[in-house]
Amino acid sequence: MAILRMKRLRLMAVRSRKDALLRELAKLGCVEITETGEELRQTESLRPESSGLMAVRTRQASLDHALELLGQYVPVKSRLLSAKPELAGEIFLEDDGVDEALSVAQAIADKHEQIRRIAAEEARLRGVIESLEPWMELDLPLESAGTERTELVLGAIPAKVSRSAVVSALSEAADEAELFPVSEDKNARYLALLCMREQLPAAQEALRGFGFTAAALGGLSGTPKQAAAAAEESLKALAEEKAALIEELKAENVHRDELKLASDKLATRVAMAEAEERIVGTESTLVLEGWMPEEREEELEKVFERFDCAWELRDPEEDEYPEVPVKLKNNQITNALNMVTNMYSLPAYGSVDPNPLMAPFFILFYGLMMADMGYGILMIVAALVAMKAIKPREGSLSFCQLLLYCGISTFIMGALTGGLFGDLPYQLVHMFNPASTWKGLPYLFNPLAEGGAEPVLYGAMVLGVIQLNTGMVVSFIQKKRKGNLVGAIFEEGSLWVILVGGILLVLDMLHIVALPMLHNLALAILIVGGLMLLFGAGRGAKGFGKVTAAIGVLYNTLTGWFGDVLSYSRIMALMLAGSVVGQVFNSIAAIPSAKGVTVFSLIVFIVIFLVGHALNFALNLLGCFVHDLRLQCLEYFGKFYEDGGRPFQPLRIRSRYLQTEEQ
Questions:
Q1: What local confidence, expressed as pLDDT, does residue 648 receive?
Q2: Helix, strand, coil distribution of the chain in percent, nearest 5
Q3: What is the pLDDT of residues 266-293, one digit of tens each?
Q4: Is the pTM of this model over 0.90?
Q5: What is d(CA 617, CA 164) in angstroms, rounded to the nearest whole number?
Q6: For the packed helices 53-73 and 98-132, what is the interaxial angle rounded to 10 degrees?
């Protein structure tokens, strides 16, 4: 279709009606509020608006966090294909229920925090119980550290260390010290060291050489068994408390829908607050600047009049084009290609919308690459089911539409090439009747047929020449509109003259047209085209630069055009690859039925058929898209496309969990 014409908006309104005005603009969703110009920013009487953006974002984040917590404790199994609930746009602009939802969100967050703290305490107690296990046979209170003159230290040495060597070293360092074994396992020996208080440093120094480490049992009381039992009791109490909190938190699930609606309301408030930060004003008035589509001018003027605004609308100057946001106006066919354009880059404002120019080629090429009636039916059914079930919008809608149109193209091309899940009909007929002479479904062209690959290859290249020349026509028109007719003639025009000469020369060489003067005429046209190309390349050069420009344009034209046209051979290659893989899986699946169809061979056929074609379909679905995308973005766009457009981002209702009703 086209790139919507934009108008630069400057508006002045009464401050008391700011919120109502912003709500109305958000409801309409067609005004992008931008930073005010330098002229207004330097006006001393105007100051930036205070929006409270961070506070609103914090409130929305608390609601989203509460919903995430509910998702953890009360998972909801949603259907694979389900549409978001729809509500009237006015509901998202109301504040009703937001404060109540925030209270619920805070309660959920508090309960989760308590549960988290209990979990941390449980982990600590389990660690205590684990640390006490080696000391269960010790019948001494853990708070006991010895007597007035003795010290008691619990610790462990590695199991591989000889206890006798430790005892010997200890007796030399502290003759009155004693080691008492408590327990041991495959990793360590657990010991109780009893010694005179004054000999403790020497005893510890002696034991340190054998890897002795003191047990970290501080803060515990009673014997190890008593301490472990107390920890177990605490764990039970904590488990009961945590279970009760979890049940209380799960009970908050009845507020899930309220939380979702409140979150979406605050998301819209965030959008309004972001817009407010770009507004300036005085104590009684406010001034905003932005962009709006020209086609919505009449509708917006009625709104501005209702709010007693003063406004100015003007067309952007050409030097402002890089700042002008881009919005594409599409119909049901070209809207599908928004997905492709957005993946690449939006067109620059003032250039041409690529979607209508790309749509027929993209859809046709995809069908040629896939070329299978069965796969086409799967794509059509998947797209229709998704569009009915989830009611997609924007990017999701573009994807579903593209899947539908490419599925239709795939089915048509499959009918022309005789492909239905590869050669499934042929395999089935010959499985049940090996003597059959049926050769399969009829076809108009097929790369797998004898001598069929070359016509498909030549046809793909012809389609490439047509698409590339379409891009050149667009480029020619664009240059003419910008007053560069001479450049268009010597750039695109010279190539067309060469193309005409080349076609005539081929017709003569292949004896398709028998005219005595055709050969000389073709050569003359080629020479004229070549001279035009060389002259056009050297127009702006001087001296030796004309020579280098001529060499450069010859090299770039020959290699560039040859490479671009050759790239379209991928259409034939992907058609061939998909068909071959499909036939291979069918042939493998039919092998068990070579000596006759049985229940077992039929089950094997179905399993191999389903698995094989699922893989082939998935690979082709992605592969055809990637290679089709490459043909559009590299070969085609390179002839005419001006990218770098900035997307139009109006103040609008934002929603994540719900969506507005379609008007």
A1: 93
A2: 65, 10, 25
A3: 999 999 999 988 888 888 888 899 999 9
A4: no
A5: 73
A6: 50
